[in-house]
């Protein structure tokens, strides 16, 4: 599923500027979590992270895990420091007004599977 | 890309307890260095996860600490030691889901009780040593394929 499709499915707003390349990135799985160690334990690299936390260390967790796209739920938006950090690390940030359950459900229904436990 | 390590490389980072804004900086720097050396992606990811978890524990639980790395043609050795409260029951702390993280730490997304298991899972050799009232030392080795 492309990032462009994900944005449409979630009615998401784009926080970091996205070029064509980023919009056409193929995302194969997603992981919904508010616990960073769970992300680090269960993630698959290149998956989408759906979370309600917006602090800078969430961006760093994504970087460490090799996650390149984050969707913040409930309309949350990170502060400018986190946005700059994400841009520097080439991590795309989106925000949706949906809750975590609905956002995950919509993507799953559209065919995006969960991360595989490795 | 072949691994470009003909001599051993050593270095260390200071970690300051409670400094959440820069949390992950040490692990990120090490990750960058390994990328520059052309180390295998999977090894980099495992090292990054293991060091990041160790770094976060120092930031959350200790006053200060240090991460020391030693890269050889065979692999990466990491030692993270801190001046902190220490761990009373290491066996318990190693269990998945065990955490003493206070609420404010949980609100930041830490405290799943998965950090130490994550370090063990991602390293080939994992050792933990702790003295209550003095501090904790984690030693990890990740071998190159
Ligand atoms: N460096 C340390 N100093 C003192 N206590 C520690 C240290 N590292 C871990 N502990 C203790 O061991 C427990 C388990 O640590 P672990 O990293 O596995 O989980 P956590 O930090 O509680 O949660 P998570 O890592 O999933 O965010 C901690 O809650 C804490 O009580
Ligand atoms: Mg931890």
Describe it.
The complex is a heterodimer of chains A (118) and B (145). The mean pLDDT of chain A is 93. In chain A, strand 4, helix 5 and strand 5 (92-95) form a beta-alpha-beta unit. Chain A has helices at 3-10, 20-23, 36-42, 56-65, 80-88, 100-109, and strands at 13-14, 30-32, 48-51, 69-72, 92-95. The two termini of chain A are 21 Å apart. Chain A has a single domain (3-109), classed as Udp-n-acetylmuramoylalanyl-d-glutamate--2,6- Diaminopimelate Ligase, Chain: A, domain 1 (3-Layer(aba) Sandwich), CATH 3.40.1390.20. In chain A, helix 4 (56-65) packs parallel to helix 5. Chain A is of the alpha/beta class and 118 residues long. Chain B is an alpha+beta fold. Chain B has one domain (9-143): Heat Shock Protein 90 (2-Layer Sandwich). A 5-stranded antiparallel sheet of chain B has the order 1-2-3-5-4, with helices on one face. The mean pLDDT of chain B is 95. Bound molecules: adenosine-5'-triphosphate and magnesium ion. Adenosine-5'-triphosphate binds at residues 53, 57-58, 60-62, 82, 84-87, 93, 98-101, 110-116, 136 of chain B.
- Shape descriptor of chain A: globular
Low-confidence stretches of chain B: none
- CA(first)-CA(last) distance of chain A: 21 Å
Q: Oligomer, anyone? A: heterodimer
Share of residues in helices of chain A: 40-55%
Class computed from helices, strands and strand pairing of chain B:
alpha+beta
Give the topology string of chain B: H per helix, E per strand: EHHEEHHHEE
Could you tell me the radius of gyration of chain B in angstroms?
Answer: 15 Å
Q: Which regions of chain A contain 5 or more consecutive residues with pLDDT less than 50? A: none
DSSP helical segment count of chain B = 5
The helix content of chain B is 25-40%
């Amino acid at each position: 599923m492309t990032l462009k499709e994900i944005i449409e499915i979630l009615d998401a707003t784009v926080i970091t500027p996205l070029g064509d390349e980023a919009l056409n990135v193929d995302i194969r799985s997603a992981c919904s979590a508010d616990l960073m160690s769970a992300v680090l334990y269960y993630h698959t690299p290149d998956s989408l992270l759906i979370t309600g936390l917006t602090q800078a260390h969430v961006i760093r967790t994504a970087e460490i895990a090799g996650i390149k796209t984050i969707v913040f739920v409930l309309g949350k938006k990170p502060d400018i420091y986190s946005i700059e950090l994400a841009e520097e690390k080439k991590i795309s940030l989106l925000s949706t007004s949906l809750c975590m359950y609905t956002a995950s459900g919509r993507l799953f229904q559209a065919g995006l599977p969960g991360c595989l436990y490795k | 890309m072949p691994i470009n390590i003909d001599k051993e490389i050593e270095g260390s980072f200071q970690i300051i307890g409670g400094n959440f804004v820069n949390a992950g900086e040490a692990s990120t720097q090490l990750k960058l260095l390994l990328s520059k050396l052309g180390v295998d992606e999977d090894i980099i990811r495992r090292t990054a996860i293991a060091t990041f978890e160790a770094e976060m524990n120092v930031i959350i639980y200790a006053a200060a600490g240090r991460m020391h790395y030693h890269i050889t043609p065979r692999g990466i050795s990491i030692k993270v030691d801190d001046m902190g409260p220490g761990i009373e029951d290491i066996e318990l702390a190693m269990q998945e889901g065990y955490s003493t993280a206070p609420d404010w730490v949980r609100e930041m997304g830490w405290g799943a009780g998965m950090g130490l298991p994550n370090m063990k899972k991602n390293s080939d050799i994992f050792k933990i040593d702790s003295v209550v009232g003095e501090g904790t030392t984690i030693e990890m080795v990740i071998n190159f394929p």
